[in-house]
């Protein structure tokens, strides 16, 4: 028995590791034959974008069928990593955000798609997907963070509507004014709602502060952003982090049910809000979009370009795809990042990666979308900086900063103490590993 | 085993042979599935812990590098400390509650079926619902728990899941509440193995209820208690889903536990080699504590 | 443990006082009994509070689920949620898959687990303790750490994205073996010895003596395995992709991520997922107290 144990260990290990290594086959290439490529998506019944893209592509490529494979929205990356590791992943898969692009690319799980990338022309969101001059994925969505505001509640509180020239201090002052005005009018709504995600403070701080660098290990730039948030929740101008967390407040209900007059959120919320108005899960009220508040006056006003943040959503090709399907998959990628797909996506309220005037017009022609000039400006004009700059350290740093976020926002730690700790942890646990 | 050793040689080897065949034929149906589907991947883990592996492609052998890194990793130590904190609080509380419930419900009283079901309900209720409800109950400003505390004169009640000091006790309370019905069930089954006439004999001897509990129930329950302690220990060291749905390790790192750290390093940061190394340490702790429990148990039994 | 007479008649499994207690004691015991009931009722209220909240939320409109302060009784009961969820989700498929899996896994686990446990508890052969240690050892390893190697293995066996993956995952666990071994060890060795003298084979002893004597333990194992499989979320999440394979927990989570703000419906689904298990428990709990004590063999 004593000899049998190491033997069993070796056999078991060899079995597991050997089985992991095999697989992969070649097929003859025939460009005109009917092809089926599989595409990973999530929550298919409530996320129409995948079907929109598949149908749109079939209109110009009748011999290619795009078959959708459903994944769990909340655990998409976990499931995808497992499938890629086991070699059972679909031919084309979505990169939900930039955070995991490094993992997939450096792990050799993305095919070089420079062919598809080269036909796209100038597309700012393409740059993060390029490594050493080669393109590994193409963007089809580019959301950015804007300020949603409830015009009705502004009127109730007798506060003038935003004009697109706010700094964060203006925003904070306005949130307090709104809260006081709403209270005077007998409403329980708060001036603002800050969702519990770390992005709500850190995304803006990173994008807007001059010289801020996620990978520098210096997080002093977060300080003014957190001071304002803490001040707003202490003043009662927004629900506290604790209440939002323990009562599972959703930003959709908070803004859609008119519990808060202002909400900072990504442009994906446009489609959600429209759907919820139709289904009755959101009230019907006048709303608008304004640019996100700015770090200082240099980028405020409609004559300047406001700075905000957001990660593109991309698509890449699984290297285990059979060779005969590669041209079809590349053509599909070129389509999803192109003008036609952009219009199709805008038609269902999604913000495509390509921000051209006709695409913006398509979105603003939808029923229920505000048509004032500021909303169009906020939606179409901005400089978007990535929330997750591509690097092997990004996820590690973001985890450290997530701990900072919950510690600071729950008042468990003082801001200075939390920043010092995060810097120490970033250096010892992430940047030097 | 002592009995078999003293038998004469030829008979012994035949007996050993026969017993081996018999033993393996009983174990084999389960062992085939177990060895292939669980033991093999677990063994692979012992190799992966010494590599740098990002799930994809080949694992690169790095020797003890992962373990050296762990030694200097403050978050690992925080997670270990929190895990011990949870374990030390959770085990006695759950044992006491589960045994108390089992004793109460091991009688013929009206509605015992309903009561037993009620006690088991927390365990079968969806963990999402549990997290939602308890978070609301614990809500510092509006929650009923703090409303009650304020009513009885506590001026500044704790912030529970939103406070770094109270988040772990809050999780322990929910963990105990959730699991006591499960262990109650095992204790109920264990109480059934204690012969009734032992109680009757004790009664005739004039033993009080406490004496009967101390000298009949406790010894009679020993195999069950042992099982419960081992499962509770391992379960507490491995606590994961409850933390994930209730606090996600926060605020800050106040409820970060080892299992969650493993998940974070593995599935969020894709450092599966390092995650495997942390798992090995967690395994070693669980296994060490369990082995000590086995040893104590065996010594008691052989006394 | 000491040997216990095998011929003593069975006694009811209660700790009640004698049939005709002295008058003074009756008052005292009545007082105790009442106090016990009060304690029990209080405990039950605490235990069931979240479940009560779940049921009440499932009967509210969505916007009423989260209110500050908590609304314990809804203004109007919205029964429509229970109709809606059947229309908007594949509840029937989810329930069918989960039931199928739970029954299959429980059957396999109880059968092979109790069988193996007998080998570990009663037959002495070289390497037994080491082998048992390997079983216990795997319990001590967190699943998420060997999930990926296991997933790769299962995929190569073409089991992933089939219901068999979950059966394979759950049915041969060490838990059942450990639990049953502990219970077998409480059964006096003398019973098996005398049966061996009577010429019963090892299998015969397992069938005729051990299985009947371990009924409460078997009932516990059955119930716990069933509930664990029923409530398992991470296993199905990793292994099942096709919508027609979804289990109830997986289905509910997908439902949540699809309709992330619809807590009333989510709670409706949760109530529906708990009910079948609750019913099975209510029916089965009788068996925990009808074991050894009433068979007369042991007690």
From TrEMBL, chain A:
Keywords: Signal, Transport. It is found in: Cell envelope. The keyword Transcription does not apply. Pfam families: SBP_bac_1. This is Sugar ABC transporter substrate-binding protein. Its main location: other. One of its GO terms (cellular component) is cell envelope. PROSITE patterns: PROKAR_LIPOPROTEIN. Residues 291-313 are annotated as: Disordered. Belongs to the bacterial solute-binding protein 1 family. It comes from Micromonospora craniellae. The keyword Signal applies.
UniProtKB/TrEMBL annotation, chain B:
It holds the Pfam family BPD_transp_1. Coiled coil: none annotated. GO terms for cellular component: plasma membrane. It is found in: Cell membrane. It comes from the Bacteria. InterPro entries: ABC_transporter_permease, MetI-like, MetI-like_sf. Its main location: membrane. It is a multi-pass membrane protein. Belongs to the binding-protein-dependent transport system permease family. This is Sugar ABC transporter permease. It comes from Micromonospora craniellae. The lineage of its organism: Bacteria, Bacillati, Actinomycetota, Actinomycetes, Micromonosporales.
